[in-house]
Amino acid sequence: LDLSNCSLHSVPPGLAEATTAIVLDLTENPLTALPSGALVGFMQLQSLAVPLALECPGGSDAWQNVTEDRSSRLCQGQRNPCNSSVELAWPCPENSVCAPDGPGLFQCLCHNPFHGYKCLREGTFPMLLFGGILGTATVSLSLLLWGTQRRKAKTP
């Protein structure tokens, strides 16, 4: 994906849809910063060229090779943060496993059948109970409002 010399002052919002990109070139743009979530989901990215003013996302530990020339920085060979010798800042909780989520990023995925906050809930989500309670509350509130507000409505 070649976005070089496009006069970009910030990362375009549509970039999030290009998560299958293998090569990304952002050189020759007046970018001042690369937002931390700009490359979430870019697990296949193997080569990233950024202006010299910017660091490689995730730092040099997230890439196998970082080289600089006169006007750009080339980040090559994205490393898996889960297999790194560097300790993760937020270790995954029990009943979950670390999975890469872009350069220097990771996510914790719950083992089956665990789910919920910190993978502490076991079993499946009670969809029928949740839907029943939500539906009943919505219908009840709608009927109550219809009954109490009906007298205020003017007839044509």
UniProtKB/TrEMBL annotation:
<feature type="domain" description="EGF-like">
    <location>
        <begin position="78"/>
        <end position="120"/>
    </location>
</feature>
<keyword id="KW-0812">Transmembrane</keyword>
<keyword id="KW-0245">EGF-like domain</keyword>
<keyword id="KW-0472">Membrane</keyword>
<dbReference type="InterPro" id="IPR000742">
    <property type="entry name" value="EGF"/>
</dbReference>
<dbReference type="InterPro" id="IPR032675">
    <property type="entry name" value="LRR_dom_sf"/>
</dbReference>
<keyword id="KW-1133">Transmembrane helix</keyword>
<feature type="transmembrane region" description="Helical">
    <location>
        <begin position="125"/>
        <end position="146"/>
    </location>
</feature>
<dbReference type="GO" id="GO:0045669">
    <property type="term" value="P:positive regulation of osteoblast differentiation"/>
</dbReference>
<dbReference type="InterPro" id="IPR042350">
    <property type="entry name" value="ATRAID"/>
</dbReference>
<protein>
    <submittedName>
        <fullName>ARAID factor</fullName>
    </submittedName>
</protein>
<keyword id="KW-1015">Disulfide bond</keyword>
<feature type="disulfide bond">
    <location>
        <begin position="110"/>
        <end position="119"/>
    </location>
</feature>
